[in-house]
Design goal:
Maf protein, Molybdenum Cofactor Biosythetic Enzyme, Chain A, single chain, about 25% strand, about 425 residues, six-stranded mixed sheet, about 40% helix, globular, alpha/beta, five-stranded mixed sheet, Alpha-Beta Plaits
Length: about 425
């Protein structure tokens, strides 16, 4: 089954809204058995929606749209697609009832505005899917052997509907079992990893190998053959994991879907340790990554955002002498942050991060992207000096990844870094 995504909305084309919906849907559709072959961004105009749908149907079996299902006049997706397909529309009374029940449930006073009933407009013959996270239902239409699925544009609603209804429908319609072998790495460049694994596809029978880089990490994902039985796929997956782990060594942090923060929390749990963090340039991003993991409270106590020098001294016991002699962005301060915050909370493990995220504030000696991370745990302290690149947001995210990786290595007794690791500053003359 081939598929195409139409991202509908003027806000997407204006650049004011980042289209995260396509990123999510592309992966979900592929994993469910519908290969994504195209993506279009479309304005809130009936003619443009009609043209985009007609083009999509020339090359795709399934078209998934996001956006334009709201209660305002510019939400034209349902009416435009119905007209394009030559279908009449009707008010779905079951959807009306669900809309009114949701209106009452979320505590809004008075009667539901009449314009909300626009979200109950459904093309004749369509199937509706209950929205578990919002009001507008998902809509499925079959026409001439092709299918259209309309989903809301609000990311939380779209994802909930896609997981609950779209993915199961695609799996049933495609009849495929799409599985992957996944190995997750951090700290190694994509090009270096690919060089080490250049013959991986050949070694696993021609399976498709993809390298998926992120902010400091690269996933190796191998698509297992859909025509093989479960035992063969399991054997191939085990072979992939063994080969990548052998060649990528301690850069590998997981051979499953777990994020780096999940892996670190799991290690802390096994050892019976608790963690606290002290963040300067990352401003709470590290604690946010950690607490995104369900159950993080089992091993994570909390953290301190110590942006100013005075807060570093008052909250994390960094000494004024250290700040005076070495500056806030230094190995010494990062280590004192890690130890100081751990002792303040009475926890055995601490992380300290301090750096220059930019775009201003750098100097020839400490340019933008200079970051120091430290990880303290029973057995000692690890420190890394980093020279990061990218914009402010990227530098902050890469700092968080580096700090988590440093603690993972400390907990496993691995070296603080490996030869050739990413973000190592150039040697000083």
């Amino acid at each position: 089954m081939t598929s195409e995504v139409l991202s509908i909305g003027n806000e997407v084309l204006s650049g004011r809204t980042l289209d995260t919906n396509f990123h999510f849907l592309a992966r979900l559709l592929e994993e469910a058995g519908a290969r994504v072959i195209a993506h279009q961004a479309v304005p809130d105009e009936a003619g443009a929606i009609d043209a985009a749908l007609k083009l999509a149907f020339t090359r795709s079996d399934l078209v998934v749209t996001t956006g334009g299902l709201g209660p305002t006049p510019d939400d034209l997706t349902v009416s435009a697609i119905a007209k394009s397909l030559g279908l009449a529309t009707h008010r779905d009374e079951a959807v009306i009832a669900a809309l009114k029940a949701r209106w009452a449930l979320i505590g809004r006073g008075g009667e539901m505005p009449v314009n909300n009933e626009q979200q109950a407009l459904v093309p004749d013959g369509a199937t509706t899917w209950v929205n578990p996270a919002g009001s507008a239902p998902g809509i499925l239409i079959e026409k001439g052997g092709k299918h259209v699925v309309m989903l809301p544009g609000v990311p939380e609603e779209m994802r909930a509907l896609a997981k609950q209804s779209l993915a199961p429908w695609v799996r049933a319609a495609s009849g495929l079992t799409v599985e992957y072998a996944l190995v997750r790495t951090v700290g190694i460049a994509e090009s270096v990893l690919e060089e080490r694994l250049s013959d991986l596809s050949t070694l696993v029978g021609g399976a498709w190998v993809a390298y998926l880089p992120g902010l400091g990490g690269v996933d190796v994902r191998v698509t297992l053959p859909t025509d093989a039985d479960a035992d063969i796929r399991a054997g191939l997956a085990a072979r992939v994991r063994a080969i990548v782990t052998e060649r990528a060594g301690d850069y590998v942090y997981a051979t499953d879907e777990r994020a780096l923060e999940r892996v670190v929390l799991d290690l802390l749990g096994v050892k019976g340790y608790r963690l606290v963090v002290a963040e300067s340039c990352t401003g709470g991003l590290l604690a946010g990554r950690i607490t995104d993991v369900p159950g993080a409270s089992a091993t994570f106590d909390g953290g301190v955002i110590c942006y100013s020098n005075s807060s570093k001294v008052a909250l994390c016991n960094v000494t004024e002498l250290t700040l005076l002699e070495h500056g806030a962005v230094s190995e010494e301060v990062a280590c004192e942050l890690a130890v100081g915050v751990a002792r303040r909370f009475g926890a055995p493990c601490g992380i300290g991060i301090t750096g220059i995220a930019g775009p201003d504030g750098g100097s020839p000696e400490k340019p933008v992207g200079t970051v120091h991370v430290a990880a303290f745990a029973p057995g000692g302290m690890y420190h890394r000096a980093l020279r990061l690149f990218g914009n402010r947001a990227q530098i902050r995210e890469r700092s968080v990844t580096a700090a988590l990786e440093l603690l993972r290595r400390r907990l496993l007794g691995l070296p603080a870094t490996s030869p050739g690791a990413l973000f190592t500053p150039p040697a000083t003359p």
